[in-house]
Amino acid sequence: MRWMDLEVVKRVARIARLELTDQELEEFSDDLEEILDYLSVLDEAPSCECAGFNPIPVEDILRDDEPSLDMDSADLRELMDTYQDWVRGPRLA
Predict the structure, then answer these.
(1) Most buried one in 19, 32, 68, 87, CB count within 10 A?
(2) 6-44 belongs to CATH 1.10.287
């Protein structure tokens, strides 16, 4: 059974908006058939349920987020521009 007969190649060429001559259709049909025959080797490859989508296992290496105070808020206020214990930002125009 041919996978790439002239009708399939014509349909693909129409979808790709290609205008092919009868000779080009024959050539592409033969070329695509050779490619599919070459890739049919993959059908013979053993399947293994142990390998998922990623052949390399993906592990979560991120740490859990735990809130902590690295610096006292009073020390931060001393370093910042404050007014009545409020942090002052740049003036908006």
Answers:
(1) 32
(2) no
